[in-house]
Amino acid sequence: MSDYRIQGDTGEWEVVIGLEVHAQVTSNAKLFSGASTTFGAEPNTQVSLVDAAMPGMLPVPNRECIRQAVRTGMAIDAQINTWSRFDRKNYFYADLPQGYQISQLYHPLVGEGSIEVSLDEKNPDGATKVIGVERIHVEQDAGKLMHDQHPTRSYVDLNRSGVALMEIVSRPDMRSPAEAGAYVRKLRAILRYVGSCDGNMEEGSMRADVNVSVRKPGDELGTRTETKNVNSVRFVMAVIEQEARRQVEVLESGGRIVQETRLYDPDRNETRSMRSKEDAHDYRYFPDPDLLPLELDDAFLAECRASLPELPDAKRHRFESLGIAPYQAGVLTAEVEAARWFDTLLDAGAPPVAAANWTTSELFGALNRTGRDITDSPVGPAQAAELLALVADGTLSGSLAKQVFEVMLETGESPAKIVEDRGLKQTSDTGAIEAVIAEVMAKNPNQLEQYRGGKEALFGFFVGQTMKAMGGKANPAVVNALLKKALAA
């Protein structure tokens, strides 16, 4: 149970949150037409006669869109309905050429499922919570009104008209902004692993309608508001916090919450009223007469299930079974591209624990520093495996490996070539190391006397001086062993 509460003048208030996430289905065509769905195309260049609602045009379901929605349902262990039906949701707006939206109200494709989220990002094996998913239904998107093209007119872009969406409707199980943020991140990860949605919230291919209500702990559910089309995890969390506080202020001042649709203004960090919230009967839903029910056979369902990849939780547990720390396993599996990159690194023979330490610290740190992500990393898994192998066999020390890695980032060259060309190979030549140790001891008589007088902390000083004198190329284990022997003499 979340301990998140809004502190009001009359005491504590609990927040109740449900999310309706609209995820654009990964497909080369729209839900009922063959028109392209490429992002960023010129307005009205990806519109078929069906999308424009020309007379006599009949919709034909895109099998791939249905397949992707079923695979998504399977990924959250949801009920897959072998019989489902499309309905018409009737409303009139300039960006909806048909005068209705084809959706699924009464008989959705996917029924109840659940998503387990971690409530502690630093410890994926810590506190978790299961968020219920009520349903996933498929529907077509509307077009887009453009108000900034002319001083007195609005224009309509129908490129998005008919784009296939999965509407993933959660139960009102979340009780804090953090829980909602964790839910959206986990859902996004699952969608990207499955390949059913690219999850690019900034491009609008995944967005959330945020339902918020407040109540005194233990009371009945309060009246909810719905804030539409929120397009980032950070904004989802901000909407919840701001809208909950607004509702508490309204209720404590003697007002009442109106069931309505609201918009979020990120510049002002506030929600504002858009329109009164409609109920299902306001849309006059009825079965779409142009579309037969969807009936899924066993062979289709078996193919969908067989096509599922290893999902985030399973991959994280597998990494942990290799000895990788839970936090690192969580970091490595949070994004599908990073998880695949790391799996390729393991396949190249890299030792799991050393590979995880290096990837999460050195590689991710360098990518963050240079503004890159794993998909355009200048260092590939094969090169990384080679670098780790050079450390494992004693060719490179940790400090030398860092130097080699920096050169790899700049040039893309292989570690072996860099070591050879720049003379960076670690030395274990005991004679050479003993000579340097003798020189360091001769130059630091005071420290030598103090060490031999019992100040053993100075051992690190002698190690550092020796490594410095050898340009960081001495084998640290050999240096330590020879130093102990020399200092004890």
Automatic annotation (TrEMBL):
- Domain (Asn/Gln amidotransferase): give its ranges: 340-487
What is its biological role? Allows the formation of correctly charged Asn-tRNA(Asn) or Gln-tRNA(Gln) through the transamidation of misacylated Asp-tRNA(Asn) or Glu-tRNA(Gln) in organisms which lack either or both of asparaginyl-tRNA or glutaminyl-tRNA synthetases. The reaction takes place in the presence of glutamine and ATP through an activated phospho-Asp-tRNA(Asn) or phospho-Glu-tRNA(Gln).
Which GO terms of the molecular function aspect are on file? asparaginyl-tRNA synthase (glutamine-hydrolyzing) activity; ATP binding; glutaminyl-tRNA synthase (glutamine-hydrolyzing) activity; transferase activity
Q: Which reaction does it catalyse?
A: L-aspartyl-tRNA(Asn) + L-glutamine + ATP + H2O = L-asparaginyl-tRNA(Asn) + L-glutamate + ADP + phosphate + 2 H(+); L-glutamyl-tRNA(Gln) + L-glutamine + ATP + H2O = L-glutaminyl-tRNA(Gln) + L-glutamate + ADP + phosphate + H(+)
Known EC number? 6.3.5.-
Q: What's the name of the protein?
A: Aspartyl/glutamyl-tRNA(Asn/Gln) amidotransferase subunit B
UniProtKB keywords:
ATP-binding, Ligase, Nucleotide-binding, Protein biosynthesis, Transferase
